[in-house]
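MODEL INPUT / OUTPUT PAIR
PAIR INDEX: 1
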Amino acid sequence: MRRVALKIAYIGTGFHGYQRQPNYRTVEGELLKVFKETHIIEDTWEAHYSVAGRTDKGVHSTGNVISFITDEDIHINQLNGLLPDDIKIIGEARVPYGFKVRFPLTRTYIYIQPIDPFKEDELDITKIRQAMQYFIGKHNFRNFSKRNEKNPNREIKNIEVEVKDNILIFTITGQSFLWNMVRKMVTSLLLVGYGELEVETINKLLQPVELRQYIRLRPAPANGLILSDMEYKNINFKDSQYAKDKLIEVLKKEYIKHDQEKKADIKLIELLEKQE
């Protein structure tokens, strides 16, 4: 028997999250169905099966990682042929028997946020970049997750934002994250960018003595969030470019479909505005 780690990519739109749930389509449910069919995993407990990130409904991934013990050989192309089009295994690594998939050195999330063309106030990217710097380092993130977190302290190692084709692309790296933490961070930065929060407010929300100045932040939509990458000590994945290309084909089809819908919506708005 040996322990393996697999890198999983998926388009979260059609799933009720990662974790298997009765009567719902989930990423884990689809994976385990194929693993059982191919006898790779008969029983998750006996296989010591574990996953790095249990993503929420609608959240995507290009780098979630699962690990388990098996006697069977792993044939990625065969498994991908049995998996639905919106899930693909894109990498494999042989790992030590004691490998703990839940504890990577770092996790990286990307959040994609289109700039709202109908907002009256212009987005101030300079203020967003100023506010972002407060997140770097170790802080109390209670204001960016559930209020009853037992340990709200987390460390952000890096945070960047890129503006491309009228879209904001946030990249956030840390060792671990609280539930909804990234999405609430993005919300707070957008509020700063539109002048609804002061830059310094981000700093106050990260100070334990300022927790009474709680602002209820609504998490940014799940469909903009991507679990991008996991970094493990001395673990290198052998990536499958073929699997990546197949998923890219699906993404392109989805993009074309939604881009057409978006253009139709904008045109409809323009027509309605002309009628006023």
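PAIR INDEX: 2
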Amino acid sequence: MNELFTLPFVTGLALAVLLPLVGLWLRLRDEWLAALAVAHLAGAGSVIALVLSLPALVGAVGLAIAGMLGRHLPASGHSAYAWLILAGWAVVLLVAANSPLGETLARQLIDGQLYFTGPVELVAAVVLAAFVLGLRGRIDRHELTMRLLPATSVAERAHRRRTGMLIDALIAAALAAGTLSVGLMATFALVFLPAWAGFHVAGHWRRAVAWTAGLGVAGYLIAFAAALVLDQPFAPVLVAVLLALATSTRLLAHRAC
């Protein structure tokens, strides 16, 4: 592989492992819309950070975590995610319209400029992927327990709440890293589509993890090669490939039943 594409390839591969796992946990919670909401907030945070002469990643992660932790507020609900999507979208476009740097970054967020990622995005993606893989067993147990077993004491509810907030912060950071590297919709596609198919075809949790991660990585490898060979923008190719893989997987599973 040309050295020019080695760094973006590794960055995207780390995200292709990381984001589908995030999608699996969000689907288990039935909160997959949070991925799109937090991605929009990350985009808004990045353009605001640039206007303030701060690193884009700092703004993206900070606002993404703030939005994700907002789910723990008493009055929050699924409707809050729609509110966050609209707020993030409005901020991105308004800042872009009034700042040359913001306009450039906003276009990158929409188009998904993986080929222009640098060492900062690479380190963020690899570190987050390694962290999530190292903690995956613990996160899996927490999410499954939250879904299947009610808390039996005040202390247990408080412990679950603290653990859930830490996991949410990690999820938000992953979504922010994805948004800055592959764009809004490609990040959402990596979160939503592999988990959408994996949940449908798997008979148990471990198989769902394997299917979801496998579809994410396979879709990424196919899309990266196809975009280079066909000289096409990466993000829409990735979304199209993931749509095809996820839909065909579900159709084949349905015929086999």
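PAIR 2 NOTE: The radius of gyration is 18 Å.
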